[in-house]
């Protein structure tokens, strides 16, 4: 990746651009839903900027020593460039800095690129939730990662 990438907290002023990225995803989040997560005390919302353009976002819930990934999205035209891995790794670093040692997520069982990304970043498959996703219907794989304290 030869471009300038910056990861910042997602801000309210960026919600419309974040919602536009979400429009290209399955089970997309609206600007209102993103704003709700932004205002949640447990919410940790990150924005990935590539060449000064909002190119991705990651939404987490953090409490005590745990963090759960709710959503990670990369702008459709920017996928396949390593930005998702960059964003995920930086989120893990920042959340560890807040005291998180255990990380959790659910991913569509058929989403091979995402599963490969999560495995590459140290997550392992811990279980399956049958019928977890509704639109379209699909099982979720539960993935975990535990770091040393």
How is this structure best described in words?
By secondary structure, the chain is of the alpha+beta class. Helix content is 28%, strand content 41%. It contains four helices and seven strands; from the N terminus they run E-H-H-E-E-E-H-E-H-E-E. It has a seven-stranded mixed sheet with strand order 1-2-3-4-5-7-6, sandwiched between helices. Strand 2 and strand 3 (53-63) form a beta hairpin. Helix 1 (15-22) packs across helix 2 (31-39). The radius of gyration is 15 Å and the shape is globular. 28% of the residues are buried. The model has no long low-confidence stretch (mean pLDDT 94).
Brief descriptors of the model:
149 residues; alpha+beta; 7-stranded mixed sheet; globular
Short description:
By secondary structure, this protein is an alpha+beta fold. It has four helices and seven strands; from the N terminus they run E-H-H-E-E-E-H-E-H-E-E. Helix 1 (15-22) packs across helix 2.
Strand content: 35-45%
Shape: globular
Query: What's the helix-strand series?
Result: EHHEEEHEHEE
Rg result: 15 Å
Structural class: alpha+beta
- Largest sheet: spatial strand order: 1-2-3-4-5-7-6
Low-confidence stretches: none
| Main sheet attributes: strand count, strand direction, barrel closure | 7 strands, mixed
Helix content bin: 25-40%
What is the count of DSSP helices, taking H or I runs of 4+ residues? 4
Which whole number gives the mean pLDDT? 94
Count of strand segments: 7
First-last Cα distance? 31 Å
